[in-house]
Amino acid sequence: MVAGGAVAVQSHINGELGVRLGDGIAAAVVSFGLGLVILAALVPATPAGRRGLAALRTALRERSLRPWQCLGGACGALLVASQGLTVGALGVAIFTVAVVAGQSASSLAVDRAGVGPTGRQPVTPTRLAGAALTVVAVLLAVAARMGSPATLALAALPALAGIGVAWQQAVNGQVRAASGSALTAALVNFAAGTAVLLLAYGVETAVHGWPAGSLPATPWLYLGGPVGIVFIAVAAAVVRFTGVLLLGLATIAGQVLGAVAIDLLVPPEAGRPGAFTLTGALLTLVAVGVAASQPATRQPE
């Protein structure tokens, strides 16, 4: 839940950075790039980090970890890019519930397929009820703005990013299990995400030219990358205990609470969150409680 609250803060930071730069993808490159620089300096400098990198190389060489399992950062890149592209117009709360819609639905499928380190998780009535309650909470939270087609269309991008978040959490958990280091898993995540974003930014720049804005002098606008490290490292460390669904719902609760708090303190163009959004936030907490009542258990193959 603490990591989820960090994502809400990151969404606000990257959304504002995207507005200042006039380019959401450029904001994502800055955020991911700074996170990568920090991790690239930190991980090799520590004994645990060096052991994690060595274990990762061994796992890839012995094929106990597949190369495609190191690409979770590509989904993270989509999430961070959507922050810069849409949060300025949607607000953090609506952005968050759109991500939740995709993430809660895909978490069940990812757990059922056994993509994460906990193996296959059965779709039990309790777990299904938790995911369904989350979707209801999302629909309730956005109901007040259903009359705006532009808002709904813009929410499609973070919803797609949310679908990818569940897969990202699962494969990052596999990298953490293979390397024995959450920071090593975070480094792999940021490396993949930065590569994808640089490619996207290069294409965008070739087509549309340089961003209209410039790098701001406000220091806090560069904290999105460090905040992202907290989320990725925590998620990679705990997913092996919780499974993807419970991890997703718990981080969702933190995101919703943090997002509502931010939008109450710093109202976006769309206005302060109303009664529907607040009620949706409370229902999301109930959904986490329902899902948490049944712990993750490995399903026999």
What would you say this structure looks like, in words?
The mean pLDDT is 82. Helix content is 77%, strand content 0%. The protein is mainly alpha-helical and 301 residues long. The protein is built from 10 helices and no strands. Helix 9 (224-265) packs across helix 10 (275-292). The chain has helices at 2-21, 24-42, 47-61, 72-90, 92-113, 125-142, 149-179, 182-208, 224-265, 275-292. It has one domain (2-292).
Topology, pairings included?
Layout: H1 2-21, H2 24-42, H3 47-61, H4 72-90, H5 92-113, H6 125-142, H7 149-179, H8 182-208, H9 224-265, H10 275-292
Order of helices and strands: HHHHHHHHHH
Quaternary organisation of the protein chains: single chain
Name the overall outline.
globular
> What's the number of helices?
10
What is the radius of gyration? 18 Å
Overall tally of structural domains: 1
What is the makeup of the main sheet? none
Secondary-structure-based class equals mainly alpha
Structure characteristics:
301 residues, 10 helices, 77% helix
Task: Explain briefly what this protein structure is.
Helix content is 77%, strand content 0%.
